[in-house]
Write a structure and sequence with these properties.
mainly alpha, 7 helices
């Protein structure tokens, strides 16, 4: 399989999956430039993956790049993940309260 065929396959799998672990696997097999391209095409999907280990540190920088492409309902979905699935569930692998604060403060007025 050529490199171009491999990239197309990874793209197709990423686009079609709703499974977090498969999306993370796809992102882990991409170059940084390729991840940036997917971020612009699928901002909510990439950002939701960035809320999980080992990508936490990419979340805020990535969000700042796509505010203009992030619909309000996707913003609310990301808030739900942070608040309900991370903070309320008492996850301790990252400072989600600070992440929520920064994400909220940087959000444009919707």
């Amino acid at each position: 399989m050529s490199l171009e065929e491999y990239k197309c396959l990874i793209d197709a799998v990423f686009e079609s999956t709703n499974e977090m672990h498969i999306g993370r696997f796809c992102l882990s097999r991409m170059s940084a430039d390729h991840r940036e391209q997917l971020l612009t095409r699928f901002p909510a999907k990439v950002l939701s993956i960035y809320l999980f280990w080992p990508y936490h540190n990419f979340f805020l920088d990535a969000a700042n790049k796509v505010w203009d492409r992030l619909p309000e309902d996707h913003f609310v979905c990301l808030l739900h993940i942070i608040i309900c699935q991370k903070i309320a569930a008492l996850w301790k692998d990252f400072d989600y309260v600070d992440l929520l604060r920064q994400f909220w403060q940087k959000a444009p007025i919707i």
